[in-house]
Amino acid sequence: MRELAKITARLQVDNSKGIMIIKALWQRESSYIEDDFIPVLLKENRRMLTCRACYGGESLTTTMLLNPSVAGHPEEERLLEYHWDNKWHIFNEQEVTEFIDDVGDNNPIHRGDKAVVPGFLLMEKIKDKLPKNISRLALSFRNAVRLGDPLYFDIQAGKVNIMGRKEFITGTYE
User: Fold this and answer.
1) How many domains is the chain built from?
2) CA distances from residue 166 to 4, 9, 21, 157 in whole angstroms, order as listed
3) Considering the domain boundaries, does residue 73 fall inside one?
4) Contact predicate 62/23, CB 8 Å
């Protein structure tokens, strides 16, 4: 997963003030695919783009929103009322900085004390929680996860949900 994130981070988008992942599909490929050391742009318009990276028999197809407006943390924001005992993770600045430095991610929304946690870091951590023999993981990023957000993990019959102050990520795996 990390190598695929490195390849995707090489994507250069003109006039972009940031990119936010809205969907990501990781797959273990059943037939040989050639490694791409640059991301392949599959679709692009003024607001979104879709690209694909391949490495080591795996592929990562990502749909991203260009120049996203990322909402803040209003104190009065209605919190989801989940009383789960399965607190999963709280990302900190050091963890995010190490990841973005390692993959070469220069997206400005991943920097600072109100940084958005990179989608590929979230996907990597989610994949680590799932059975090792999965062949497919599809995620939809519903809301931005920020540093310090407490996250709760729920897995049920091929589905995964990451919740916290909002519904953050939903997905399926095989």
Assistant:
1) 1
2) 28, 27, 17, 22
3) no
4) yes
The tokens describing 44, both together, are 């692009």
For the chain, 174 residues long, the average pLDDT of each consecutive 10-residue run is: 88 70 91 76 88 90 82 44 65 94 91 90 93 94 92 89 88 96
Tokens of residue 102, six digits:
């390692």
Letter for the amino acid at 46?
Answer: R
3-state secondary structure (DSSP) of residue 173 = strand
Give the Cα separation of 174 and 172 in Å (integer).
7
* Phi then psi dihedrals of residue 147, to 5 deg: -50, 135
In this structure, the strands spanning 48-55 and 40-44 are antiparallel
Cα atoms found within 13 Å of the Cα of residue 87, Cβ hemisphere only = 8
Within a domain: residue 74? no
Asked if the structure places residue 75 within a domain, the reply is: no
**Domain contains 72:** no
Give me the domain span that covers residue 105. 2-66+85-173
The answer to whether the CB of 24 falls within 8 A of the CB of 120 is: yes
Q: Is the CA virtual torsion 12, 20, 55, 25 positive or negative? A: negative
What's the CATH number where 155 sits?
3.10.129.10
